[in-house]
Write a structure and sequence with these properties.
The chain has one domain. Helix content is 26%, strand content 25%. The chain contains three helices and six strands, in the order βββααβββα. The protein has helices at 44-58, 91-99, 144-162; strands at residues 14-22, 25-32, 39-42, 112-120, 127-132, 137-141. The mean pLDDT is 88.
Amino acid sequence: MADTKQMLFSKNLICLCIDGNENADYQGKLYHQYSDDAIEFRGLTDAVIRTEELFDEWDFPQRGLAQRRFKKHTREEKRPKPGADGDDRLPIEIIRDEKGVRNVQNKKGALGTFIIQVRYRQRASWQGQVIWLEKNELMDFISVLELLKIIDSSMQTDTSNKE
């Protein structure tokens, strides 16, 4: 039986490359389609925060809930809404048109690699799919916590198989 390669296609693919494991947490780099530069993370919580910041910058997938704030916004902090200047494209579409698209599915982490596609940001969490590239396994997740459990259990399984 031929080994078929799982592929995801989306405007917001994230490649999570795990390069190390210190203090029971993973470190590595994040890649996305609109830059060649890696975003380093020091723990999976840091990776989630940095990815959430990218989604907010791209406004895709859009939040299901508004983020709470304890300080008043200044006018400079407010982002113009799509269509405010006559351009009705989403910010991610403007970024795509300006910077072009790169293939993130060819990046590799020293310990593990996960391609993440977040389809929705609803109920204050993420829903989507993740591919564990080393095993070519496609898994669905319905929350950030479930995604983190998938990554951790995959890495634990991979580590125990190598010993």
